[in-house]
Structures are given as C-alpha cells and as structure tokens.
Protein 1
Amino acid sequence: MARISASVYTSHVPAIGAAIDHGKTGEDYWKPVFAGYDFSKQWMKDNKPDVIFLVYNDHATAFSLELIPTFAIGTAAQFKPADEGYGARPVPTVIGHPELASHIAQSVIQDDFDLTIVNRMDVDHGLTVPLSLMCGQPEAWPCPVIPFAVNVVQYPVPSGRRCFQLGQAIRRAVESYDEPLNVQIWGTGGMSHQLQGARAGLINAPWDNAFLDRLIADPAGQSEVPHVEYVREAGSEGIELVMWLIARGAMSDVAGGPAPMVRHRFYHVPASNTAVGHLILENG
Ligand code: DHB
Ligand code: FE
C-alpha cells in the first residue's frame, strides 16, 4: 500500500521564482525569505518521496474564464512550465505519475468528489515556485509530481470544509494503491495578500500565525471558517489558503492516528506583495 508520509505547506509568490531564476537569492531583500527554506531543502534530500501530490492554483494560465474546473487532477506523463508572459521559467519539466493519478481520480470520484481529469496542461508559478523553494535548482525534479489544481480565482470557490474532506478522500485513495509508494502532499498558496483594489498590499501577520497554529492543532475547526473571513482578514488572494486544508485533511491524525510532528515552521513578511508562510508536518 502507498502512504502519505508528510505534508508541506508554502506560499508560491511568482517574484520568488524570478529571484531564483535571475540569481538574486543573496540580495538583502531576499536572503531572509530563502533562509527559511534552508532546512526544507535538506529535509527534502533526507526524506525524498516517490511522488509529490501538489495542490496549487492555476492563475488563468492553463484555465481561463472559458473553463473553470473546481478541482482538476493532472493525469499526464509530463507537464511543461508555463509561459506566464515573460517566457517559461527555466526549470525542469514536471514528470507526472499517470498510474497513481488515475487511481486517485477513480477512488476520489467514487468517493463522491467530482474531479476534472486533465491530460494536457502547462503548470504556472503556483506549482513551480513551491518546487523551486523545496528543491533548489536541480537538473530534474527529484520525483514525479501529480498536479492538483483548485479554483480559488473565480467565485464560487470551494469551501474550506470541502477541501478538508477532499484531503481525507485523497488519503483513502493513496492508501488503497497497491505499490508501496512514499507520497508527500503539498498545500500551496497564501498567506495574506491582496493584489488589487483599495486594500492592495494588505498583510495580516497575527491572522496568518493564528491560521498556522490552528491548521496544526485544530484543522477540523479551521475548516469551518467561511470564505468571508479569509477575504476580510487575509485579503482577496488570502483565499488561496483553503488549499492548505486539502493537504492537512490527508494527514493520518484526521483519521484517528497520532498528531503529526511539526518539523519546520517559518513566517516572513514581505515577499513581493505577500506574507510567506511555510510548514512541514510529518505523520507520526
Ligand atoms: C503575488 C502573489 C501571488 O500568490 C500570485 O499568484 C501573484 C502575485 C505577489 O505577491 O505579487
Ligand atoms: Fe497566487
């Protein structure tokens, strides 16, 4: 049986990708951001998974107002880094895991979560920046990655509760896969930020840190928090944080296992317009 060994949570700020790609990580502005991931890069080497199930949001790159899947699973053999207007990032092509992805689609859809199946898709900063933060600049990503895109851009977006329940269904799906694969699940996006309108530039550090506390200790309670609180307290793009509940819902304590170990926690303001948050939780 496959199992989920750990969950990783991180912001996905596009300027972080640009700083890496243009050799600016040593600049004073960026140093403290990347310092927060030194532990994580070593941890990735020491805890290399067989597959990463990467929950992220597409930013009108692969999808648009013409087609808005709430939950979309990438079942292809590979996914190219997208051109988001400045050319594609110079990062490796993402190798998928069509067998596990198809199994998860089968299991989760039979478990009453309707997923969109995606056999061709370019992946934007929502997916590639977390990989860069955790893996650095390798020739190839360390393992296959299953992209799982969530609509948090165009309302109606899924509730925290639905995301948390979906995470539980994903854990059941992984655990019913025959091969003994070590799977990590990543939840990405956030933390507080707002890119437009009168409140552009909003950051709410106390709220972000309370979110991290509660995600660790009381994810079921956090999953009941309505959208309006995310938007009011963490800004219009703070809603990306509901995706973290998918990864958290897949941890074994939610199904009665021991509490996860907090291996790493990091918070920093600012990176571009965003508060950066990061957690690594290992299943006990
Ligand atoms: C920024 C953050 C995001 O999450 C994003 O998708 C785009 C831009 C920013 O901080 O500029
Ligand atoms: Fe984003």
Note: The mean pLDDT is 98.
Protein 2
Amino acid sequence: MYDFSKEDPEIFNAIQQEHQRQDNVIELIASENIASQAVCAAQGSVLTNKYAVGYPDKRVYTGNEAIDEIDKIAKRRAEELFNAEYANVHPHSGSQANQAVYAAFLEPGDKILAMSEHAGGHFTHGQKHNFSGQLYESHFYGVDPETELLDFEKIREIALEVQPKLIIAGASAYSHVIDWTEFRKIADEVGAILMVDMAHIAGLVAAGVHPNPVEVADVVTSTTHKTLRGPRGGLILAKAKYAEKLDYAVFPISQSGALEHVIAAKAVALGEALQPSFHQYAIDVIKNAQAMAAIFNQDDKIRVVSGNTENHEMTLDLNQTGLTGHQAAELLYSVGIATNKELLPLEDGNTMEGIRIGTPTITSRNFDESDAEEVAEIIIKVLNNPSDDALLNDAREQVKALVASHPINR
Ligand code: PLP
C-alpha cells in the first residue's frame, strides 16, 4: 500500500492496525475472506477518480473508453462463471442488489415470502427494520424444529396460503445444500417469481461444489466478498428476458454512478474464480468446516445446529455452556478467534444463544483439516472454561502459533 503516513497519519495508522489485526486473528466470521493483492490493487487504482453514470456505450459523461472495457469484462466473466444469460455487476452491495430486484419485480405492498431471520435468513429479505419489510408485505418460512432443515412441504403450505408474488430462497446462516428445484416447484405452483440470494455460497456455486441456482431461479443476487473472495459489492444474474428491467432497476432506479474501481476488482476476482485452483479452495472450505463440526460433535455442551455442515459455515448452540452468543463471541475474541453471535432457529424467543463460524478466511490462508480441528478444540476449551486464566493464556499462545505458521499472502 502507498505510504501516506505523512499526509494522514491517523487513517494510515488505523489501516496498519487493521492489517495487523487480520494477520493475528483466526478469522471465523463466515461472511469474510481475504481478497487477493490483485483485487485490492484494482480497487485502490485510479479508477477511483472516474464518474461512470449509466452502462457501457451509453454513459452520461465522456471519457469511458477503458472503463467500459473493464465493465464489459466483469459482466462477461460473471456470466461465464455462473453460466448466466445476463449479469449486472453494478450493485454497490448485496443489499442494493436485492433492492434492485424488488424494484424490478414488485410494487409497494406486494407479498414476498422468505426465510425468517432467526432461521438464518437475511434482514433484507423482508424484516420490518429494513426497507424490504417496510415497502412490501413480508411473510416467512423457517426450518423444521426437529431437524433444523428446510421443510419444503411446510414452505409449500405457507406459499399456498400467502400467495406471494416473489419467493426468496437463500440464507446467511444455513449450513446445508439448498435444493433450488424444490423452491422452483413451489414458485411455479403459486405463480411466484423465484429469487435466490446466494451471497454466502457464491464461491461454492462458482466452483461447482454447490448446485447453481442460476439454472432454476428467475433471478439470483449475490455479494462478491464472501466465499467468492472479491471486493465488497453486489451482483445480479438472471435470464436474458429480464435484462432490461433489471438494468433499469439498478440504474437509474436505485443507483447513480457505478463504482468502477470496485467493478474492476470484481472482474479480477471473477477471473480468479474461473481458475482451477479456485475449485480446490472451495472443496477445502467445506472440508475444513466439516472437520470442525466433527470435533464440536464430540463435546456434550456445544451443539452444531442441524447436526453438521455441508458448506462453509455452521451455527453453534451454546445454551448448555450458560454463555450468551455475545459473551461467547467476546470470550473467543479475547484469545484471538473472531466469530459473531447468531440467532438460533427457534420459533419464538429470538434468543442469541449461538455463534456462527465459517471457514472461508482460514482456508484462504491455507489452514488444512488438522489446523481446523485444532481451532475447534481451542474453541471448545475456551467456551467450557471461561474463567480459567491459565487455560485462556494457553489458547492465546496456540492461536499465535497457528497464525504465525499461516501468513496471509500480501
Ligand atoms: N444477502 C445475504 C444472504 C447476506 O448474508 C448479506 C450480508 O450479510 C447480504 C445479502 C447483504 O450484503 P451487503 O452487506 O453487501 O449489503
């Protein structure tokens, strides 16, 4: 990074501090990752200076020769990677991608049906504290209380009763493969549009280790920064017949100038995801998560919600440890392990007695299954002995050794 410590020491030093934090922490926040140096360089480039309102060859301002080229490459790579007829790489974030899709397909007051937040859904899928729950009439499905898995018969029943205009599949905290075709059948039966938000699993889909929703959904949204390992941003994929409507919903309905420095970084990340090595990374993400789940399953106080994981993440039920999700996340962070508190899939109560953990970041820094097992063992030790200072110190030393032997390549 350019050394601007003289121009702005406050911000420069804070960035250095964050750099060190990332190096020294075992990052298990399931929605984070380590973008490559090339991705970071593209995002930090002179493209920051350019205003690019509109789409390639139809810009409002002049001077977009290179910008248009970059924009078209990003779109082409997204379409190739996800086998999509149409991609829009302009949404500034996952939330804005969702906003644009709603704007394209819905009128205010229309009914949407999505996974509830406490079952693992995202709050931009109709929660009242978000625009989506304020503009549209939202209804929710959860998971089966016994298996903690999606129950398609139940979802179908709710859909038949609600008659939603749009059904949303996809989650932020759900550790199993989602059968998009089951959602397709339900959407067809009630005449709804099927939207999939694959923000969390986009990297797994790109690598072919999770079924691709693009083949069955009407429209798919994503972030580019989670398992996909790109810059922070959003993405929309759809059938070609929706191209015009979706383009218009992004610009001018919900955005003005495109963030072309971010779009260049998205193009670089999409190019990386098209390489064979990305496939191996995605396989390793899942292997590491499963290795951790197997260790947690040996502990009688920590329960893996739904029993195991088939993707990059899992939620741990900590009710038996007596710790809240917040306390557990703080305790783990005090020894150098970053997680986040998470709702448990309970019908009522909305308790936060869980934490979510994920393996994209540790996999990107080359932790293998035995490292992942060691991390799970440290977590168990810490959560079961929150006041044992000597043990917490040992855990801190173990974390230090693990991060030192897995440096981040930058
Ligand atoms: N959709 C899902 C499923 C997510 O998990 C998230 C982020 O956590 C988003 C959308 C929102 O993405 P962003 O933070 O880029 O707005």
Note: The longest helix spans residues 276-296.
